[in-house]
Amino acid sequence: MKKALFLMAGAAFALAACGEYSQVANYKPGSYQGKSDTRPWEGGKFAGDKAAWEAALANRAQGQNEYKRTQ
Amino acid sequence: MARMKFLCDAERCIECNGCVTACKNEHEVPWGVNRRRVVTINDGVPGEKSISVSCMHCSDAPCMAVCPTDCFYKTEEAVVLHNKDACIGCGYCFFACPFGAPQFPNGPAAFGARGKMDKCTFCAGGPEENGSKEEFEKYGRNRISEGKLPACAEMCATKALLAGDAPVISDIFRDRALRRGKAGDAAWGWTTAYGKPEQAQERTQERAREQQREGAK
């Protein structure tokens, strides 16, 4: 009796690793944890003037349209 | 404000690699790292098409979704940037990216030995002080904070590569397509490359009909 109990306990212990566990990862969308970036118009040439920065970029973008450049 | 995008006009690209050279020079990109490259389809065959490819700054970027250290972020201008201090060089972003944008300084080395990922920043630097030495060394020059557009697009001789605010460059491209009478295989992006097969079939049929009409003339 004692031996049977001992064997059962031993078997339960030995087979413990054979159990089935869910292998599907729970996807958790992460969020950026790193350093914050300064915005392009902050500091430097534009010193916080967002409108001036936007105007500079818009002007630059139109330079890509040769139909306008050659008019 | 802006939603920054690249648009490559395959009808205009002449495979000069000026954009690649401009990028390399502007950011002093090391050997083995190509933030931008020109891909030619049917090379040497009449009617070959070339397109300049780099990070497309996806609206729903797969690199951001797979990064185990969450080192990616999106700026207010919708530019996908990353923090090199947090990058562990696992290469997941490389496998996730449909454009092959993420580059590693040590090439296809073993896990963990690739080095920190490097990619096109839309010339917008990274999470360091704008225009600082640290920013230049890690991410390259920050032209956007200087009120300039990416060097590749500004250097493009035929203006095949357009960069800037999405509605603005769309307008430029639309104007161009109207003037030359066709969009052709010009606009190249996610939908063109990864569109539904029916769409591709429709395009092929349309092209065949067009060729027949031209042949009949």
Question: In words, what does this structure look like?
Answer:
The complex is a heterodimer of chains A (71) and B (217). Chain A contains 3 helices and no strands. Chain A has 71 residues and is mainly alpha-helical. Chains A and B meet through helix 2 of A and strand 6 and helix 6 of B.
Look up the CATH topology of chain B: Alpha-Beta Plaits
Choose one word for the global shape of chain A.
rod-shaped
Instruction: Give the second-level CATH assignment, the architecture of chain B.
Output: 2-Layer Sandwich
The biggest sheet of chain A, with number of strands, parallel, antiparallel or mixed sense and barrel status, is:
none
Q: Stretches of chain A where pLDDT falls below 50 for ≥5 residues?
A: none
Number of helices of chain B: 8
Radius of gyration of chain B: 18 Å
The percent range for strand residues of chain A is under 5%
Summarize the model shown.
The complex is a heterodimer of chains A (71) and B (217). With 71 residues, chain A is mainly α.
Question: What key attributes describe this structure?
Answer:
heterodimer, A: 71 residues, mainly alpha, 42% helix, 0% strand, B: 217 residues, alpha+beta, Alpha-Beta Plaits, three-stranded antiparallel sheet, two-stranded antiparallel sheet
